[in-house]
Amino acid sequence: MNITLNHVMPEPLASIKHSEKSIWGNLISLKSREKIMLNASSGKGKSTFTLTTIGMRKDYSGTITYNNQDIKAFTPDDWTTIRQEKVSVIFQDLQLFPNLSVKENLLLKNSLMDTFSESEIKQFLERLEIEDKWTQKGGLLSMGQQQRVAIIRALCQPFEWLIMDEPFSHLDIENTNKCMQLIDERTTELNAGFVLTSLGDDHNYNYSRELNL
Amino acid sequence: MLRKLLFQNQDKKQLVIAVIGAVLGITFLVTSIHYLLKVNEFGKGAEILGPNVIIVQKRVNNSAVFGLAKPDFSKQEIEKIKSKKFINDVKPVISNNFEVEFSTNDKLVPYFRSDVFIQTIDPEYMDVKSAEWKWKPGDTIVPIVMPRDFIVMLNTFMSASGIPQVSDDVAKDIRFKIKISNDNGEEVVGARIIGFTNEVPSILVPQAFMEYGNQKYSLGADQKITQILISGEESEFGLVEKMIDERGLESKNSQMVVGRLKSIVGTLILIVLIISIVAVCTAGLVLIQYLQLLMTRNDYEVRTLLRIGYHPKLIVKTFFRYFVMIFGIVAGIGLAIFFILKYFVDGLLETGGLAIETNLSYAAIGALVLAYLIFAFTSYRTAKNGIYKEY
């Protein structure tokens, strides 16, 4: 699935001067299977990119299309299918349920498409060294642990694109590398692409392309 | 898991208060509708005249005695009464304008003969089976409704003659005959009692028989309407009674007492019903407001569920099912309390002399189902509007 941003300008960012290379106000195509780093300093609209690209914000001019279909015309049914099967997201604010356990947070997502077995999900936790948090409430975890749970949750579904909004902001280099490896394996397995927004750090990954805001 | 997530942020105290309010409202609603209908049905079938129907005549006063006031009703007078808002209809009570002789025609009872007065009223206002209440020229038997006083008189006569007294059912099997005549001729037909009445002091016959007699054996003079049948609006019997008094009319006291009693009790229950409807609406609103509050408290959870791929329909269904279940519990408790109340109220009414029917009123259950459906629909709309606003 190709995602195209055709002269998109979010209303809150319209008054800011953007560079000629910025995705804002230009025609940008995100080709299927591309692994893209979206680089920008604070306040340039990294989270706005995430939220507008997955249809959660509509306050922009221009058009965003999925395979040439304007996403503003999508119905709730369309968005449900897209969010279950086509586009997965790691939000900057993680969006976990603090009163549910790690297990419940992950199974709640996994049950939508029945992607993995419980033991497979536990293996992900082991790889990111948080297997002992299985029954602990999400709200009681450290930000780094929550971030790893949010990453695993995003992988518990089929997708063609994985949109990540500063997914490693609370992780050290070692944990970042483990997460990056897991993400790479899963996207390669699914033949999917990803967009990773970053404050400049490339996390030692060889991207297909780098975009700027 | 979805239910656990969405209903963990509840203020149970608020829910309990809303449920108690709804249970009270539902209980009053079902109870008041049930008793409103039962009180309206009270007396139905026991008497020949339908509910809210009375027969009136002009009160005899000194002017009437000296011929200064007319005892009969003019067409204008009837129209004027009919024009009142609380009056459904006014029909003349037709009397015989021919001679009528009534006698027994059965070996089992002693011979008894009397000149009598017969009347007919519109069958629309009579509580008799239409199949029984008909006659046409050539028929050998005419059905009649006898004043209950007649059976008392007949039994007094039988007792004095040393013959066992008769019950209502036995009296219906006794054969009678009616001779109708004028100076030019006479005709005899058999008669069979099909019912008794406390409300009309004369023998009632079908309209066709009266028309036949008045045409064929007319005594010549113009027929006067001395009695009229008035059908009043339900629960407005007080106004009918007031009008009767103001116009110098009178009716049998028993009819007035039952009508007045039904009107008073009916009005009281109607007030309770209105209060109940207000209570149910208020309780329903409180529950709906609670649903809105719950959705507001779960704003984050709902938004996140939608973001991670949950269909809004599934979230709407979860809220809807929960509230439909709560109102189901409310309806169940309300119905149970109604049955307990009914057990005691039926006993109280019977002790108080108002022995109404104790079977369940379907309209009351219908009202409960209707309230349930309205609540279910409102819950669904509220949940849908709340969830879909995220798009």
Compose a concise summary of this entry.
The complex is a heterodimer of chains A (213) and B (391). Chain A is built from 6 helices and 9 strands; from the N terminus they run βββαββαβαααβαββ. By secondary structure, chain A is an alpha/beta fold.
Please name the defining characteristics of this protein.
A: 213 residues, Rossmann fold, five-stranded parallel sheet, four-stranded antiparallel sheet, 6 helices, globular, B: 391 residues, alpha+beta, 2 domains, five-stranded mixed sheet, 16% strand
Description of the molecule:
The complex is a heterodimer of chains A (213) and B (391). Chain A is of the alpha/beta class and 213 residues long. Chain A has helices spanning 46-53, 76-86, 102-113, 118-127, 143-155, 173-190, and strands at 3-10, 27-30, 35-39, 60-66, 69-70, 87-90, 161-165, 193-198, 209-212. In chain A, helix 3 packs parallel to helix 5 (143-155). The longest helix of chain A is centred in the last third of the chain and has 18 residues, at 173-190. By secondary structure, chain B is of the alpha+beta class. Chain B folds into two domains: 2-43 and 261-388, no CATH class; 53-251, no CATH class. Chain B is elongated, with a radius of gyration of 31 Å. The mean pLDDT of chain B is 83. At the A-B interface, helix 2 and helix 3 of A face helix 1 and helix 10 of B.
